[in-house]
Amino acid sequence: MSTTTDKPTILIVGAGLGGLMLGALLEKSNVPYLIFERASAVKPLGSAMSIGPTLLPIFEQLGIYDEFLTIGKYLTHLVGYKEALVPLKPLDLRPVEEFTGYGQYIVARPKLYDLILKQVPPHKIHFGHRVLNITEKDNKVTIHLSNSDTVEGDIIVGADGAYSAVRQRMYEQLKTERKLPKSDQEDLPFCCTCLVGQTKVLDPEEFPIVAEPKCHFSNLYGDDKPFTWHTFNTAQGTLCWMVLHHLSEKTSKAAMEQRFRNSENSEWGDHPAQAMCDETRNFPIQLLDGKKRTLGDLYDQTPKEFISKVMLEEKVFATWHHRRYVLMGDACHKLNPSGGHGAVTAMHDAIALANLFYAMPAKTGEDITRIFEEYQKERLPAVTESFNNSRQLAKTAGRGIVGAIILYLTTVIPAWLWRIAMAKTIKFRPQAGFLPAIVVKGNVEPVVSASEQRARAVFKKQQQVAASV
Fold first, then answer.
1. 3-state secondary structure (DSSP) of residue 203
2. Which residues pair with residue 112 across a beta bridge?
């Protein structure tokens, strides 16, 4: 692949939300790129996501904000219940609108995925293309694909998840050079597994909650079992659900697989999701209609091929880049989903990288190393904060004494202290510096993004040059 542009050619491996967001932004900035995804098609798996002020300014810049509002369900409170459906004090999310000018919304993950996918021209995303090898030569990086094609670029971005093939190749080089920290050579740990799904469109006569104008987000805590479960209604007339199984100790994928290879009753056989459905189908849920409902009522309304069981790994890697490789999203920081920050941090990574790629003065190895260092320096503090917040929320959901104490404190927290806590969650609201800026709303100023400022300076200079011609 050749190009006459002075901008680097970006090869993105992985078409998850982070990879797609990077592609959508590079499309707007006229930086050349291609996306490669090993799956032939992305299945509409997963439950729903909470999206609000930390991403909505960039949605405005991309011109998708209004369409997002049609697929999102306005969320004002998080409501907790004990297993007997005794309600706990609701947590009020409305202060975020005062702080930022944006509300909080629940959106089905597949709907959000489709919305961002539409921002990437079809000829720039290649499904069913697995990366077999990566080589570097003459200041270029080349990916070797499963269909025997090779593609050359200047930078390769690993947006391919927690078990990233790009990270594996990069770390192999670093190990050979004796530059890989010991912590980065350890397995990804996890302490809970997750069952997720979304029902088909439901009849509001039978399930009145789906017709509610606002989202009812319920968190349920098992009394004597290591489970928490959650339900939320969507704008599409469906119910999303998630069940977390909190393990008694941390483990890893490799340890689990070895354990089950030595067992006749492997949980990770052909039907792991079905086994967890059977185990949890009698857990009660609250759908506000006065009827006795259980998770089984939702499982029966969910197509089996859209139910999945996953491990919830937790780790922030120390090494995010090397030479012409750079990682983003789960490939370099895997967060517990309790905080709802995983996909958000991946898309924030995409914004920072897009700003820096746009502002690069040249595409030499020195320039690339410099912008990668700036990228990690900017993103690591925010990622670390999200990682710690997610772990704290995971402890709340856990069934131990620490979880019980934290849960109690959240129900008695005074309004003024809750507002302070909420204000901290919305301070990162980055924008693309190469697109017209969205006026900052609300009364809490966002953290200044160095990559955005750098891109904005280049953008203004180019506008001045264009105006003088």
1. coil
2. none
Phi-psi label, residue 288: left if phi above 0, alpha if psi -120 to 50, beta otherwise = left
Query: Mean per-residue pLDDT for 295-302?
Result: 97
Q: How far is CA 294 from CA 298, 300, 310, in A?
A: 7, 10, 22
Could you tell me the two tokens for 72?
């999102």
Distance of alpha carbon 43 from alpha carbon 46, whole angstroms: 9
Distance from C-alpha of 234 to C-alpha of 232, rounded to nearest angstrom: 7
Measured distance CA(356)–CA(348) in Å, rounded: 13
Q: Is the pLDDT of residue 408 over 80?
A: no
**3-state secondary structure at position 184:** helix
Taking only the tens place, the pLDDT of each residue in 252-294 is: 666 655 544 443 333 333 357 899 999 999 999 999 999 999 9
How far apart are alpha carbons 197 and 218 in whole angstroms? 15
pTM of the model: 0.91
Domain limits of the chain? 10-185+314-468
207, with CB counted inside 10 A (0-12, 13-18, 19+), is: buried
Q: Count CA atoms closer than 13 A to 207's CA, side-chain side.
A: 23
The span from the CA of 442 to the CA of 428, in Å, is 14
Each residue of 103-114: b (16+ CB within 10 Å) or e?
bbbbbbbbbbbe
Residue 8 · residue 154 · CB < 8 Å: yes
User: Cα(356)–Cα(368) distance, rounded to whole angstroms?
Assistant: 10
Considering the domain delimited by 10-185+314-468, tell me its CATH architecture.
3-Layer(bba) Sandwich (3.50)
The conformational region for residue 53 under phi > 0 = left, psi -120 to 50 = alpha, else beta, is: alpha
Q: Which residues contact 220 (CB under 8 A, 6 or more apart)?
A: 80, 81, 82, 83, 85, 228, 229, 230, 231, 283, 284, 285, 286
Which ranges constitute the DSSP H helices of 281-364? 295-299, 342-359
Residue 429 to residue 138: CA distance in whole angstroms:
38
| Lowest-pLDDT range of 75-79, 269-273, 327-331 | 269-273
Whose tokens are 């930390």? That residue is 54
pLDDT in tens, 172-229: 999 999 999 999 999 888 888 889 999 999 999 999 999 999 999 999 988 888 899 9
